Amino acid sequence: MSFTSLSFWLFLPVVLALFHGPCRGKLRAQNALLLVASYVFYGWWDWRFLSLIMVSTAVDFGIGRWLESTENLAQRKRAVALSLTVNLGLLAFFKYAGFFIDSWVDAWSALGVEMHRPSLQIILPVGISFYTFQTLSYTLDVYRRQLKASDDWLEFAAYVSFFPQLVAGPIERASRLLPQLQRLRKVTEVGAWVGLRMVAWGLFKKVVIADSAAQYANAIFGESEALQGPILALGVVAFAIQIYGDFSGYSDMAIGLGRLFGLRLKSNFRFPYFSRNVAEFWRRWHISLNAWFRDYLYIPLGGSRGGQWRSLRNVAVVFLVSGLWHGADWKFVIWGGIHAALFVPVFVMGRNKVDWGRVRWSHALNMAWTFALVCFAWVFFRADSWQHATDMLAGMTKGWSQGLSGWGQVRTFWAGTDERFFMLFFVLFMVLEWLQFRRGIRWMWRGIWRHAWVEALFVLGALMFSLRNEASTFIYFAF
User: Fold this and answer.
1) Catalytic site residues?
2) Domain ranges of the chain
């Protein structure tokens, strides 16, 4: 069930009515409703997927109780090893089995040894990467004694499966979300309005901005062999807009929906394309995932302790694993490797020797340069394969001189489109993003966002575009 589907918009009012009606003032009834609603939401794709999330929930709830009941270090290590084995084992089988087998066969083929390539028909359960990391964070925090294990299976199951953020984040820590599920929730009028605004803004980002940009990106990436220079660069920028609108739109909707149920979810994006360097970009992009890798991979590896080059090694490991987390394909590993390489100047040149960010005239240049570097990496993320990505990058080096075919392709492309409304809404979107970045989100809400007509405008724009074009699947559902 997707946030942009008719079934979801029929499902949501029913759940809200039950939550604020019969379940009002009853903690266990609220948690039970959220659990049932979440299982209906998740099982809507394929009811067989429910068994996997139930297994992860049962295993980690039981292991949490085991960890809470013993002080024996050997037993505690066995318990956390069991959690890692079950959760990462399920993730590896469903997401990476085909990738590892293909890589193994290709490696032997490169050595001249032909091997039979088995055909695996494995369906990737939607959201498995997200809820696996969420439930693992609980077990690891209990093991580290940073969190007391839950003794209520209902609240724990509701934590693992809370439907607004179940399939594409934000990835919530148990220390943040579980305490909220342990107390009675009452939604205030202000909280409800904030939630509705976030839902409207996220829906606008997804349907109007992301899905419209996707038409350009898909057309250009799909015909990249016949294109060159400026038009290919336009396609990459279109994808950068698409993935930001798509993913941050989902996160905004999830956060807004959480507020409607009296729950506060973690902010996942903070205007990443206004970053002045790549390090800042990753502090603003997919914040919940980066925090997970920082706490459960980077710091255990040693973090920034042990010298500059060891820190670089740890950063490289994190980005390579992050790339593989995003998808079972070498193009994602290369994408992660590129971002690891882009961190080298931050460490080698020093982060505090020259703070160009304080020189006002350099802000725009720094942002433009960072955006260009991020777009370069996006080529590998979006392309069909790493070979496709390298071909596109080679094509981008051609056709830039005035009068050559590259600029002619841009003129022909724009002449064949009728997206005046998209350009109007895109300009509005960028202005609002910039104002929120410069003045703060609260400033926006205290200004024009106080008026209901603003939400109505966003919803109207989303409806208008959804009638013209069917909403596409959220990109991160594939991860």
Assistant:
1) 326
2) 6-184, 191-478
